[in-house]
From TrEMBL:
Exchanges the guanine residue with 7-cyano-7-deazaguanine (preQ0) at position 15 in the dihydrouridine loop (D-loop) of archaeal tRNAs. It comes from Natronocalculus amylovorans. Its cofactor is Zn(2+). GO terms for molecular function: pentosyltransferase activity; zinc ion binding. The lineage of its organism: Archaea, Methanobacteriati, Methanobacteriota, Stenosarchaea group, Halobacteria. One of its GO terms (biological process) is tRNA wobble guanine modification. This is tRNA-guanine(15) transglycosylase. It catalyses: guanosine(15) in tRNA + 7-cyano-7-carbaguanine = 7-cyano-7-carbaguanosine(15) in tRNA + guanine. Zn(2+) binds at C279, C281, C284.
Length: 495
């Protein structure tokens, strides 16, 4: 067990946790955003990140520091915390990004981790290979082997209280991602970044990003704090948290500002195209859109970077609130509606619903059915699986709200799409307190039929009757033939 990470609350695979960073003497609440600080080009002073934005942790690049002589001397002399003016935790990257971009960086894991330790980093990183998407399998396997060796080399080092990242690679091969996650979790290392997903996000391949992270999570243990390297756009953070990611490093706030781009939770706008500022952060409250458009480039970049960071931190807080209230998946769905590729990501998330169900709490806030995809949520799967816990008499009426005939039954159970059948005594129990439409859609009916099928298979000696409110033909086809079907609409018409 990793005693430096404690999970305090959860929803789907998302969680609110506490990451203890002993070398910094702080505890970071997760999900957490790590603003990226380039030591040579600082857009927002780290002390302001702490005092004005509430940042508890940031990330900077030890390879850049090591190769910038004057910065290197200062870092070795006074340490990172004094150099940057930041009291929270500081994570350092190793140069793996530069390795992926430019080839050999001529530094070993032992050398760069020792340098990170010597400049006062709180969380260090070995030199792994971020294998990009779509490479040949042989390349992915070979580079994963190099990353595994880097983890072994890091694990063998004495670094005192500094935590060490154990990157999880494997390109777009789910089995390699899962293997890499299992290997990393078996080490004594501390934080587990899922790497090389930035190309997927940049090309809006969110479904494949979801599959890669889900595979890595299958290999990792529940108590592994997971960092999604390079994920910092507020639009996708809820999706990533629902997958089980805890840490996010964002350079987007500064990089987008440099191009005059204005971040929102629904996407990105160019400041020159805006007529209004759809935000109430300090920047948007104190400036008009015309002021932001007309200030000089340097000032505009600064103001946009601050706005972008405010929006991103606000989304992190919104996600935490959603986890606490038990409606994280509703937030994910709202964000997914902002772009078709995000919707693909949400659907891919629900493809892993059995995996999510293993970590999803059994009781939380009210379930809201707001789209057909909600029929595939973990709560529905769990209800169907737990039907084997119920005692079922010989003759049972399953009804959406009425009695179709004078036939006597030993029990009358309710049917609520998408969950399906349940004894009425459970009506006040989660998730059957769900808010669902009065006119359920096809997907909800088909999911309810799957629950009926499961109940029938568990109780082959019971005679079941289903009283439904005009289910679609494919939903009725999914109900076992041994179940008597009665239409409540037909009964009402006869009366």
């Amino acid at each position: 067990m990793r005693d430096h990470f404690e999970i305090r609350d959860a929803d789907a695979a998302g969680r609110i946790g506490s990451l203890s960073v002993p070398r910094a003497g702080v505890t970071v609440e997760t999900p957490a955003l790590l603003p990226v600080i380039n030591p040579n080009v600082i857009t927002i002073e780290p002390r302001r990140l702490e005092s004005e934005f509430g940042a508890e942790i940031l990330i900077t690049n030890s390879y850049i520091i090591r190769n910038t002589e004057d910065v290197k001397e200062q870092a070795l002399d006074v340490g990172l915390h004094e150099l940057l003016g930041f009291n929270g935790a500081i994570m350092t990257d190793s140069g793996s990004f530069q390795l992926a971009e430019y080839g050999d960086i001529n530094v070993t894991t032992e050398e760069i981790i020792e340098f990170q330790r010597s400049i006062g980093s709180d969380i260090g990183t070995p030199v792994d290979i971020p294998t990009p998407p779509d490479v040949a399998r042989g390349q992915a396997e070979d580079e994963l082997a190099v990353t595994k060796q880097a983890l072994r080399d890091a694990e063998a080092m004495d670094v005192g209280e500094m935590l060490i990242n154990a990157p999880v690679q494997g390109s777009t091969y789910p089995d390699l991602r899962e293997e890499a996650g299992g290997f990393a979790a078996a080490t004594d290392l501390d934080v587990f970044p899922v790497g090389a997903v930035v190309p997927l996000m940049n090309s809006y391949r969110y479904a494949e990003m979801v599959d890669a992270v889900a595979a890595a999570k299958r290999g990792l243990a529940v108590d592994c704090p997971v960092h999604l390297f390079g994920a910092g756009h507020p639009m996708m953070l809820a999706l990533a948290v629902a997958l089980g990611c805890d840490l996010f490093d964002s350079a987007a706030y500064a990089l987008y500002a440099r191009d005059g781009r204005y971040l929102t939770v629904d996407g990105t706008e160019h400041i020159d195209t805006l007529e209004y500022l759809p935000c109430s952060c300090p920047i948007c409250s104190e400036h008009s859109v015309s002021e932001l458009q007309s200030v000089g480039d340097t000032k505009q970049e600064q103001l946009l970077a601050e706005h972008n960071l405010h929006v991103t931190f606000e989304e992190i807080d919104r996600i935490k609130s959603a986890i606490r209230q038990g409606n994280l998946l509703e937030l994910v769905e709202r964000r997914a509606r902002s772009h078709p590729a995000m919707w693909d990501g949400y659907k891919a998330l629900l493809d892993h619903t059995e995996q999510l169900e293993r970590e999803d709490p059994v009781s939380k806030g009210t379930f809201f059915y707001t789209s057909s995809d909600a029929a595939r949520r973990p709560e529905v799967t769990r209800h169907h699986e737990r039907l084997d816990r119920l005692s079922v008499p010989a003759r049972v009426l399953l009804t959406e709200g009425g009695t179709p005939s004078e036939t006597e039954y030993d029990a009358v159970w309710a049917v609520k799409p998408p969950f399906g059948p349940y004894p009425k005594e459970l009506s006040d129990s989660y998730p059957l307190t769900a808010e669902v439409p009065e006119r359920p859609d096809r997907s909800a009916q088909v999911a309810a039929a799957a629950g009926i099928k499961r109940l029938v298979e568990l109780n082959p000696e019971t005679a079941f009757t289903l009283a439904h409110n005009g289910w679609t033909p494919d939903a009725l086809d999914a109900v076992p033939e041994t179940v008597t079907r009665e239409s409540l609409q037909a009964v009402q018409a006869d009366r």
